[in-house]
Protein 1
Amino acid sequence: MIDQAQQRCTAFKGMELIASGRLSEVVRRAKETIDSGETEPVLILDDATSEPVEVDFRGSVQDVLARLDERADRDALAPSTVAGQDGPVPARRGRGRPRLGVVGREVTLLPRHWEWLSSQPGGASVTLRKLVDEARRNRRGADRIRQSQESAYRFMTTIAGNLPGYEEAIRALFARDAARFEETIVAWPGDVRDHARALAAAAFEE
């Protein structure tokens, strides 16, 4: 679940960046642009993933922002769940240690995996959590590169798919060829070029 109060987004009107910042601020600016009679499409993208953010722009600015607040409240009040025999059930708080956000889901392993996990101190669940945390630490750099590539790819596919050099820019992005990437996008509209460059920056880090 995304904390909408902290979610950072960017709005484009065609190929022009019109706002960047917290979701509510970006939505307000996008609504004002739409109400001004602008005919070019306005698109809001999540800064972390470049996934489109769905917003209902009907009514006034206050109406639109109120619906965002209502959606955030519903998300915040949604009960956490744990897996039961008949599917997810509301998590109950009783005595003892809190669940700390633990969510039960099915894990399928071979018998030898379960045998090894059950022999570890703390049992299978504790061992799996430790293994995941260790993998996250060890892959932090690789994950950062992958996330940067995926976000830049989504943005360029959405906004720059018809621009000259698009396919070459994608190849350079996944080849981690910074010089070729920069050379290919340099003639793109300034806002598109700069946003693509920012999203792809981590992909070219050593």
Protein 2
Amino acid sequence: MSSKVPRLAIGLVHYPILDGQKDVVATNITNFDIHDIARAARVYGVEKYYIIHPVREQLMFVERVLDHWRTGTGSKYNPMRRTALTQVKTAENVEMALKDWGVPQALTIATHARSLEGAPFFSFQDLRATLHEKDQPVLLLFGTGFGLTEEFMRSCGGILESIKGAPPDDYRHLSVRSAVSIILDRVMGPW
């Protein structure tokens, strides 16, 4: 494995997302997703964590939360959280996140609980090799709600294999926070 630090950014996408009736919606940003995913990103050396939403008021909510923990009273109350939140950024869409990151050659990989037939497929091992051995920067995208739309996923450079549930029922309804932690460990963990 290369001694170079892999270049990975992650994005939590809130639009275009499917709801329970398979309608395309924009989901709300949650406080838990801001904090918990930032902490996992910090543990695994993620360069940037983008919270991606097209509605300015939702992004303003994120900025208020970040201000509280980075410079407000929260920064004194919990300095570890301030450290975890330093890499969190907001963007209105994936293109703006890539522009902000400044890595135009980054490969975009979408995650999903189920496979998508005909889309380029990356196993966890493939993505790990892409990051660690091929030295390819990656923007790894996670959906909210009932997942990213098929059209959005097909616009990405590939789809990451899904986390499989235990037999016999293969239950696949993790919170996005849990899925991010599991995936980051598989592709960035020191094993």
Protein 3
Amino acid sequence: MRPSRRLASVTVAVAVFGVLALPYEARPHARVHTGERPAAEPFGATCMTRVTGSRVTAHCHNPYPGTDRVSLHVECARWWDLDGDGDPVEAGPAQTVRLTGRCWKEVGSAWVSHGRAS
């Protein structure tokens, strides 16, 4: 047995009218996700590193309100020379800190790591 076309038309009309009769807030809406994340608070000191012979000096300035824990890491060029990892130093808001390290002979590389203070 086949339902009549008239019954099908009436059913569709009732369904559409039922949705349109709802207040705007109660109607279903598509959710649009832009993929944007909430803006994170700016963080991190800006560091400038200088290698002079076997000595390394880094100056880190923190322009942000959060405290940054900076640490100097020195990798020596010679395999027998000991690499150095400095203790973390807190760079507070609008504060500049100086970090130093050295090798016995040549410096292979040097970098500064950052971390949020707890």
